[in-house]
Description:
This protein is an alpha/beta fold and about 625 residues long. The protein folds into two domains: about 60-320 and about 470-605, TIM Barrel, CATH 3.20.20.140; about 325-470, no CATH class. About 35% of the residues lie in helices and about 20% in strands. The strands form five sheets. Strands 1, 2, 3, 4, 5, 18, 21, 22 and 23 form a nine-stranded mixed beta sheet that branches. Strand 2 and strand 3 (about 35-40) form a beta hairpin. The model has no long low-confidence stretch (mean pLDDT about 95).
Amino acid sequence: MSEQHWDYLIQGATVFDGSGAPPVREDIAVAGGRIAARGANLDGGNARKVIDANGRWAMPGLFDIHTHYDLELEVAPGLPESVRHGTTTVVIANCSLGLAFGAQRKNGADPIVDCYARVENIPKSVLRATADKVDWHSPREYLQHLNKLSLGPNVVTLLPHSMLRIEVMGFQDSISRDPTEEELQKMEALLEQALDDGYVGMSTDALPFHYLANQPNTGKTIPTQFAKYAEIKRLTEVLRRRGAVWQATPPKDSTIGTIRTFLLSCGRLHGKPLKTTVVAALDVQANRKIVRLGRLLARVLNSRFLGGDFHLQALAAPFKVWSDGAVTPLSEEIPELRALNEIDLEDRPARRRVLDDPAYIEQFKAMWMHGKTGFGPARLKRLLRLEDYAFNRTLEDMVIDLCPLKVWQGMNFQQVFDRVLNANSKMGAAPAGEEQQVIAEFFAQVQDEADFMLGMLRAFDLELSWYTVSANRDENMVRELLMDPLLLPGFNDCGAHLTNMAFYDGNLRALKLAAQGGQQDVAYMVKRLTRDAAEVFRVKGGRMEVGDQADLILIDPEALQQFDHHDSARRIYRDEFQHDQLVNRTDGVVPLVMVNGHPAWSSDHFEAPFGKQQLGTVLETVF
């Protein structure tokens, strides 16, 4: 036998190399963490281990361009729930939040807890445990810290604008006034230094339902949202000059504000395009015009006339969102629901006092029934799917996942509402046992939907878990968005919203939808999930040329076709968080995940090095 000089030889794979070119059948040799050779019929005798990839697709490891893994990296740096689905590179510190400046605890403020708890629906106990361990104080020290962790995937990091504001202005001032000229210059200098250190850009946020979780500031949004246009323009000019990335979210309720803000991407107006990636292209059920306006904005900004470099992120899945009682990301945009979210998760008595308050009851009932009865503009907007809120108030669309009253699990709210009305009117079979007691105690006075919803929240609080699909119900539209060259697949939001959403397998869903058009569409989608993402964020990756880092995966195309991506979410208990989490399971779809030449995931298990030694690295800008 020849002298062994390859660590692994992957034989007989159908290779999608990330270029968008049609696949070829060939072997891939890996040695020393690199692609050592590619070609037909490579000699297996030169490899320490041969991996049979006949009937499998091989491709570069997939990018997840929008995550909130900043906290999980501190307790489970392998990021197993992404790696098992073929993700080998994640982008962190999105939406202006991150750990670049450390804990930033000062003058009684606890920014990690205060900013993350409601925005990302993570329990304060989890956040405090992370903040307690932080021992760095600067963006450069943070990168050094990350490179000491037992990383599973590679990590790309943005500089979070909310934390930048807090660092320069102090927490309270960052949410109460404009920066001085001296403070603006300091922010610019810190951003410049971070880009020198290896950060790929900066993230901001303007979504109107990202609120703080500390008293007396629960009625205020996170610091980035207090920045006026002039401040954003100053900081994005630094990014533009350096060729760095701006990750942003639009001011949802202001079309003019959105257009003005994102014209910053345009080279015709500002001398040089600004690479901009924006959350998100969603086909919202309650307002069908949003996705059309988003795509129109992308076409106009990227037109030859304006010369923009603008990429809306598209989610490859139905936007299925779970709620724990009234606690869900989407409820923050409605004042009557936000009042419940402002209360600490652990404080059930406080929520009950709000729900029993006569003034609150009146306000809640008006909100819930708005546009559902009578005639007028509100009713017309609801019928035409042009409502102001993304939150879905249709009882038939709200399905109970978990409930202390087990007989109601699996029913939608309309079915339970009808059951309650029948019980109160003595029609049909009378409820018995525990159901009879619950209806008598909490639903005896129910007259309409609003009464019923108040009864559900009083009876079960956070023990009631229910879900609805608020966007992306039309799979054909989802595929159209993913295939649009002006958009970019992403917005999986991994690492956030522990029990509210799970899109860890979002990239696999994108590949499955692309496969409906054959191998050429698969090749295009692989390029979008690998090389295009690497180029947008200006890092190495998405390639399988000889000499490239061996970040690659195998996909079983038959298993990909057969797995039900509408039913992949699972609720598990994570020891790392001491808390439940919604995750995804796609067993059999990804037979191999290799990071830096080391198998991390094989068939149905993690390999020994995973989680114990560093596989991925922090990727710095290379373009």
